[in-house]
Amino acid sequence: EDALMKVGSWNSEICSITDVFRVNLLLLEHFLQLEDIQVRGIITIFDFKGLNMYHLAHYTPSVIRTLINLVQECIPMRLKGIYIINHPPIFNVLFAIIKTFLKAKLLKRTRLFGYDLKELHQLVPDDVIPEESGGTNESYDYDPLERELESEEGFYRNLSSYGYRDTPAQTEHKYDGLLTDKIP
């Protein structure tokens, strides 16, 4: 399975980088439910067409570390490849920072193609690559995915209730014999 993410289309005046992360985590959780992706993994293509300095300013070292930690340590997904296309030359500066945090395996699977996509066409089916980049992928109709996500809203709200605390909870737990309870 392959996924295309148009990073350069992000309007950071309307949507914060935190919201972008939230949406991407929601989509990752959705994709993790698909058996095909569980078995075969995923190749993600990031299209940076339209990316500019204003976008890059949101990617602080802390944000980059958090993003990479999520990808490498938290998401139980087989990432077969991360391909970055249509990135401006300034992205090379950001990627130089990113590389310092990547494990060797993920770094090996990450490829920057810039605007020369001949090699990408040899690696990825044309129906995944956008028309404007020489592929046959038309504008994606997000309506069915949106309806599917909305139909599973309860599941995702429940997932979002989990997390971690910086300090242990001070509540006392009484074991009541249920299998889901932790034994003190």
Automatic annotation (TrEMBL):
<dbReference type="GO" id="GO:0016020">
    <property type="term" value="C:membrane"/>
</dbReference>
<dbReference type="Pfam" id="PF00650">
    <property type="entry name" value="CRAL_TRIO"/>
</dbReference>
<dbReference type="InterPro" id="IPR001251">
    <property type="entry name" value="CRAL-TRIO_dom"/>
</dbReference>
<dbReference type="InterPro" id="IPR036865">
    <property type="entry name" value="CRAL-TRIO_dom_sf"/>
</dbReference>
<feature type="domain" description="CRAL-TRIO">
    <location>
        <begin position="1"/>
        <end position="141"/>
    </location>
</feature>
<dbReference type="GO" id="GO:1902936">
    <property type="term" value="F:phosphatidylinositol bisphosphate binding"/>
</dbReference>
<protein>
    <recommendedName>
        <fullName>CRAL-TRIO domain-containing protein</fullName>
    </recommendedName>
</protein>
